[in-house]
Amino acid sequence: MNRGVVILGIYVTDLTFRAERMPLLGETIAGSAFAMGPGGKGSNQAVAAARAGAHVVFCTRLGADAFGDIARSTWAAEGITARAISTDGVATGAAHIFVDDATGGNAIIVAAGAAGRLCPEDVEAIEADIAAAAVFVTQLEQPVPAARRGLELARRHGVTTVFNPAPALPLEDDIFPLCDYITPNETEATALTGIAITSVDDARRAADALLTKGVGAVIVTLGEAGALLHTPEQSVLVPAFNCGRVVETAGAGDGFTGGFAAALARGENPLNAVRFGCALASLSVTRAGTAPSMPTLAEIEAVLGEAAKSGSVLAQHS
């Protein structure tokens, strides 16, 4: 049996606008480009994991509309098994993404739509999928009770749990012991711990605070600096890879988490899984879009192979 990855999260259709700056309130400016495509943290992570070679089951809710049709065709094309409930009278979610022409940086507004109605009962309906998986992944774009139930069921069945606490929300402390791995970025780690992160040492202090809350291992993603794997036994900074000019960073965090989960599911140790996730994310930022930017397994392996030959992957231990 192929013990793959089950992901609970939302799908939205990304509406991406590129411009030289954000407009002020009440102002209209000219953009340089527009694109529409599949998005949503959970769905992006599902695409990333599937392209990275994992068997993926994705659970969400959709509206009965054109955006929902885009979602289903996206998952079919990627070989993702969809557990997607159609919800009458509610639109499929959408995201407004502003991308800075010069830097590739982004600002995002997400409206979860139908996926905002995901509930614990929806997760209980896929308990058999979770029980058969190697890894379970969820985030915070859907309601917290659904995410918590998924983590609980995965824990019940001995399935490795990966919690991506994005966007950052206040959380009850009892969710943290359900997490084998937690993957916040700097902003999210600060929101969860109150520790401002301006350096790797700051990230280590925030990670220690999360370990104290009961998390098994912490991975703080640090953008172009890479990702910090922090456990009670080790603290290792895995650098990002230089894969070319940065075009758009909106999908990088999702790519990392999806790639990390895919690598864990096929038996990689945590450090190698972090390297794999970093390679995936480093490739994704050289391309436009979120889900469309995710690379294939062959592309990721090529980056890792080149780095191994050149000796450029130098993990930094504390």
Automatic annotation (TrEMBL):
List, alphabetically, the GO terms of the cellular component aspect. cytosol
- Positions contributing to K(+) binding: A250, S284, R287, G289, S293
Subcellular location, in the record's words? Answer: Cytoplasm
Q: Which cofactor does it need?
A: Mg(2+)
Q: Which InterPro entries match?
A: PfkB_dom, Ribo/fructo_kinase, Ribokinase, Ribokinase-like
According to UniProt, this protein's pathway is: Carbohydrate metabolism; D-ribose degradation; D-ribose 5-phosphate from beta-D-ribopyranose: step 2/2
The record's listing under PANTHER family reads: RIBOKINASE (PTHR10584:SF166), SUGAR KINASE (PTHR10584)
User: What name does the UniProt record give this protein?
Assistant: Ribokinase
Where does this protein come from, organism-wise?
Caballeronia mineralivorans PML1(12)
Q: What is the lineage of its organism?
A: Bacteria, Pseudomonadati, Pseudomonadota, Betaproteobacteria, Burkholderiales
Gene name of the encoded protein:
rbsK
